[in-house]
Amino acid sequence: MKNFYLFTILCISLSVFSQTTIEEIRSVKLNANRDITIKLPTSYQSNPEKKFPLLVILDSEYLFNPFEGNILYANYWDDIPEMIVVGIHQNKNQERYEDSEFDVQTGLPAKTGGAFFEFIGGELLPYLEKKYRIAPFKIVAGLDSTAGFLNSFLYKDIPQFNAYISLSPELAKDMEVRIPARLAASKTSVFYYQATADGDLKKFQDQIRELDKNIMLVKNPLVNYKFDDFKNASHYSLVLSAIPNALYQIFAAFQPISTQEYNEKIVVLKEGYADYLKNKYEVIEKSLGIKMNVRLNDFKAIETAILKNEAYAEFEQLAQISGQQYPKSMLYEYHMGMYYEMRKELPKALKYYQNAFMKEEIGDLTKSMLMDKAEDIKARLPKKINGKRKAVIVDEVPAETPPTETPAETPTEEKKP
C-alpha cells in the first residue's frame, strides 16, 4: 500500500511539473502524419504575457533529451533564456533519409526533402506560432543528414531561423561554397555553429573543415560563427560536447555580468557604467527578441564599479533605470539616496532612505538595511551650532517621482547557490 501511495504521488508530481507533450500533426505537404514533442518552459503558465524563443530539433528521438538537459541546467543558472523546444520525430520508419533528400545537381531539397522543407516552413512553424507564445528568435538543430538539410533554410530570401546548430553535417553539393555566400549576403543577424571531431566520419570531416575555412573568410559583422573540432570524440559522442557550446555561443549576450566581463569591460571604463548596463539589455532585446528587466546582480556589478571609480553621479542615471523597471520596489530610492549621500547632501539622502520604507523589499535590499543607512546619515548630520541644536528638516526636501514604464518580465533575481 505504501508503494502505491508513493507511485501515486510521483505520478501527480510529474503531471504537475512536466510540460512535455507529444502531438500528431497532419501534413498536407508530406501527405502523412508526423509526431512532434513539445516542451514548454517551466514559467510558461505563470507568465501569460511572456513570449519565448523557439528551438526546433530534427532527429528528435535521440537529440531532444540532450538538448533538454542542457537547457534546463543553463536555465537554472540564468545563463540562457527559457525556450519552447519542439522535436520532430524522423526515425520511426527511418524517414530522416528521405526527409533530407536533395538534388545532386543543385544541392537543394528535392522530392520528399522538398516536401519536408515546406512542411517545416509552411506548416509546422505557422502552427506553433498560432498555438504558442513564440518570440521572433528561432533556432534549428540537427545531426549529419538533418544537419546538412537545415542549411537549406539559409537559402531563403527571408530566413525563418536566426540560429543554426549543425552537428557533424553531411553536406549537399557545393554547400562548402554556398553557405559562406549566404552568410556573407545576410542582412540580418545570424548565429551559425558547426562541429566535427577527430573520430568523425572522414568524408564529413573534409567537407566540414573546408566549410569552416570558407566561413572564416566571411567579413559580415552580422554573422556570429563558431566551429568546434573535438579531440577524442566520435561522430556520436561529439554531440554531448557540442550542444552546450552551441547554446552558450548563441546566448552569450543574454548571460548575467560575469567576473570576467566586470574586470575586462566594466570596471576599466572611465565613465558610462549606467549606459553599459542599458546597452547590454538593449542588445539582448535587439539580437534575441527578449525584453527583460535588468537582473539585480547586474545592478550590483554596476554599483560596485561606480563606487570603485568614484563616479557617484552615475547613481542618478542608475536610478532612472531601476525606477522604470522596478517602480514598486525600494531600488529607485536606494540609488537616489546613494547619489545624494556620495555628494554629501545628507538631508536629501536621508529623505530618500526614509521614503524607501514605503516601498517593497527587493533582493537583499531590505527595510532593515535602509534603516541602518538612515540612522548612519542622522549620526553624521551636524548636531549643534553655537551651543544650540540644529534642526534638520528633511521633510521639506522634495521627493522626486521615479520614472514609470510598463515593467518587462521579472528576471531571476540572483544566481542560485
What can you tell me about this protein's structure?
The protein has 417 residues and is of the alpha/beta class. Helices cover 45% and strands 16% of the residues. It contains 15 helices and 10 strands. The strands form 2 sheets. Strands 1-2-4-3-5-6-7-8 form an 8-stranded mixed sheet, with helices on both faces. A two-stranded antiparallel sheet has the order 9-10. The longest helix is centred in the first third of the chain and has 20 residues.
Strand residues, percent: 15-25%
Task: Give the structural class.
Answer: alpha/beta
Mean pLDDT: 89
Main sheet properties: 8 strands, mixed
The coarse overall form would be elongated
Question: What share of the residues lie within helices?
Answer: 40-55%
Strand line-up of the largest beta sheet: 1-2-4-3-5-6-7-8
The radius of gyration is 27 Å
Number of strands: 10
Q: Topology as H/E string?
A: HEEEHEHHEHEHEHEHHHHHHHHEE
Number of helices: 15
Give the low-confidence spans. 1-18, 391-398, 406-414
End-to-end separation:
38 Å
Précis, in short:
With 417 residues, this protein is α/β, with parallel strands linked by helices.
Key phrases:
417 residues; alpha/beta; 8-stranded mixed sheet; 45% helix
Please write out the topology.
Blueprint: H1 2-17, E1 20-27, E2 32-39, E3 52-57, H2 60-76, E4 84-88, H3 95-99, H4 112-131, E5 134-143, H5 145-150, E6 163-167, H6 175-185, E7 190-199, H7 202-215, E8 223-234, H8 238-250, H9 259-266, H10 273-288, H11 296-308, H12 314-325, H13 331-342, H14 346-355, H15 367-380, E9 384-385, E10 388-389
Parallel strand pairs: 3-4, 3-5, 5-6, 6-7, 7-8
Antiparallel strand pairs: 1-2, 2-4, 9-10
Helix pairs in contact: 2-8, 6-7, 10-12, 12-13, 13-14, 14-15
